[in-house]
Amino acid sequence: MFTRLKEMLTIRSVRYKLMVASIACILVPAACTMLIYNSLTQAAVKKQAISNASDSLLLLNGNITNLLKRMLSVANYVQLNPEMNAYFKMLASGNAPEGQNDFYRQFTDKNRVIEQLDSLSLMALGEHYFVTVLLTDGSYFMNYSISEYNPLELKSEKWFESLKGLNGYNSFWTDTTPTVFRTLKMDSPYQVSVVRTLRLDNKELYGYVVVTMLEKQLNQLFDRLNEQVEYMIVNSEDQIISDVNPKKIGTKLPYLQQFKEGATSAIMPINGENFLITKQDVNLGPTGWKLVSLQPYQQAILDISTIFNNVFLLQIGSFFVFLILLLLLLRTFTQPLMQLGKTAKMVQLGNLSVRSGIRGQDEIGRLGYSFDQMLDKVKDMIAEVSDTQARKRKAELAMLQAQISPHFLFNVLNSIRMKVMRRGDPESATMIGSLSKLLRMSISHEQDEISLHEETDLVSHYVDLMNMRQKEETAYVIDIPSEAFLIQVPRFFLQPLVENALIHGLNRGAGLITIRAQMEKDHLVLTVEDNGAGMDADKLGTLRRKIARGETVKASVDRVGGGFSGIGLLNVVERMKMTFGDQFQMDVQSELGQGTSIRMIIPKREESPYV
Questions:
Q1: SS3 526
Q2: What's this model's pTM, rounded to 2 decimal places?
Q3: Predicted confidence (pLDDT) per residue in 336-346, tens digit
Q4: How many whole angstroms separate alpha carbon 22 and alpha carbon 313?
Q5: Transmembrane segments in this chain: where (predicted)?
Q6: Among 459, 325, 237, which residue's Cα sits nearest to residue 23?
Q7: Which residues contact 214 (CB under 8 A, 6 or more apart)?
């Protein structure tokens, strides 16, 4: 089962291997990139969300700080106005004028103070502040009606007694307290106040300046921002002192205690949902107030995540587009390889006439061209081998035909030799014996190759027979080292050369035929020489060209002068080439009147005994 599954999963096509490798090389880095991208994106989204929340909070903090600082500006105006302070000090010291004229002056001075307090709303850039000046002698001035609130009730506030230790320009900020103005309680149930003290030059306390603002004026700033974000102001004890929802004012915000030391933001679960909580100090001196924002984390990262998700989807889309493009390109690039594979399969089935037809300047094009050329050469070689085999069979047939007659003659001559011996003619018997031995060697060996020793014996008998036929004897010298005699050579390759030397070179007359051999490292040099008539340059050139071209020679055409075998010189070259290949070489040297020398280089073979 496992083996079958493994075979099914095994990819045998180069095209699909390239495609799988390409997809793997793209998918693995892409997957790693996406994982890293996702990790970095989450960190970047979180960082950007915190940054956006901090920036929004910073903007809101600036508006709130400006609003509260304008309250301080109003207090500063009252505290630093010399005319109003002179009047207040006069009243506090008990030196107020009396009498009818003084009463009118007192009335006009009081109205002027009240008018100045009323004008402070213009200083506050349209914000409405309630300003109260309460002197220690019980007199008071304010920019609102006594029916709204009696300033003397300030003395009953819990924080009032702590104002005695307030000096100079130090301010006391009350936390959010219930609204004291009767007609405004319903619309804005809470208010915020800042208090300054009025002191004489000797630091004696003679009055208080109280600037009050409705808490609604603060939370109206919250409504101008993102509705999905809840903004609030908390005091140093993490109690909410300003919120859009009045019910939360006075309650404690527990999440700030979970912040890490020095951290200004955190992501915390609230009622099963993660919230991004950010805080900033309100820059009003040592009040300990903090501006806090609560926003659902998913809502905080929505816009940023949308951008990253769109980029991610664009990357995924681009990846698949380029992947498909890559697969199409790989299919196009590997199409010649597929065609080459189909051609090779058809050749394997025996169709040698098919060609790939692939051409081009790249490696595949050159491979297709080389493959087609190889098929052409294989076809030519098969034809050449077939022709060579046919010629070899013809040569063997010629050898067989040459053996048939000697076989018959051998039996006849053997009988004649016995009769001649009985009649007392030894010379004729010797001649018949040599002929008989020559014929026996020609028909007793069915193998194509014999030892060089046997070949030289055959040539010796042939020369002896020829000398008995001729008027003048031809001398015959064999100069061959003993180790060369064991070399395997084709049968009857020397006899045609000696025959040519006797008939054409020495013209059947007296002369010398020498056979020499020299052992070299990887070949045997064998030379057949005669001191006969030789040949002119034209005949020598013609013969050399025929040898170089390896012309096929028919036995019937090559028979010369009634020689013994009639195989001929060119037939020897052809047989030696068939046996030893192109490594066999033959060179003919001859000069007119100087004789002829045939030099042969026979390569060594591994099966040869002398290797």
A1: strand
A2: 0.50
A3: 878 877 888 88
A4: 22
A5: 311-330
A6: 325
A7: 128, 179, 184, 188, 190, 191, 192
